[in-house]
Design brief:
alpha+beta, signal, DUF1344
């Protein structure tokens, strides 16, 4: 009985972690930097996002307020040589103009 209880607890814990990692987040901010070739957007608060390669960024521009949807909580890191600091870049799912 004890083995069954421990196994059940382990499975439910793993299921909870999977559900949490599938969550989608939304960030709203003003575009500071936009790289249409790399499909990256950096917001004025320093957050940086890489969008899928098929994302059309022609409808957004620097200084514009946008909403970015993302689900990965594991960023890749790069060095911003202009500001001499490391920046976390998250994989984003979509971008839209904020209202």
């Amino acid at each position: 009985m004890r083995k069954i209880l421990i196994s059940t607890l382990a499975v439910s814990t793993l299921a909870s972690a999977s559900i949490a990692s599938a969550a989608t987040f939304t960030t709203t901010g003003t575009i500071e930097k936009l790289n249409m070739l790399a499909n990256t957007v950096q917001l004025s608060d320093g957050d940086s996002f890489k969008l899928p390669s098929d994302t059309d960024l022609s409808g957004v521009s620097a200084g514009q307020k946008v909403q970015i949807n993302w689900s990965s909580q594991t960023p890749s890191w790069f060095t911003d040589h202009v500001n001499n600091k490391d920046v976390a870049q998250f994989d984003a799912n979509s971008i839209s103009v904020a209202q």
